[in-house]
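User: Could you check the structure of this?
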Amino acid sequence: MNPSSIGINMWEKFAFLFLFILTGFYAINTRYHHVNEVFNAINHDYLYHVTMVDMKDETVYFDQPRTHDMIRVHFNNNLKRVRYIYELDFYKGSEPCSENVQSNHFKINLQADLGFNAKYNKTFSYYLN
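Assistant: Sure, the predicted structure tokens are below.
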């Protein structure tokens, strides 16, 4: 066997390894930006529809069932190919509250699998004053 041909075969293997790694990074990057864009799309336009006002004492609060439905529908419509889990926690002041309490603060945590053992995990908080 010619010594120069051994070197060429070795570099061909590195080229395929490089292409495999590059493709994996590109796939993770694309999925990350898609999930992040969908998560960041939950803004005041969405939250406007789940905000309520108590006319007795003029307090502003989140309608918890509507908020759950809005988040669920938004993720189902936009995160079709990604395995994800999200968690909503509602608060009254700084204390966690139950479903029937008017809450002025909630946190949403989204965890998604991006492939190649990469994970997306981000939390946002929304407040009403």
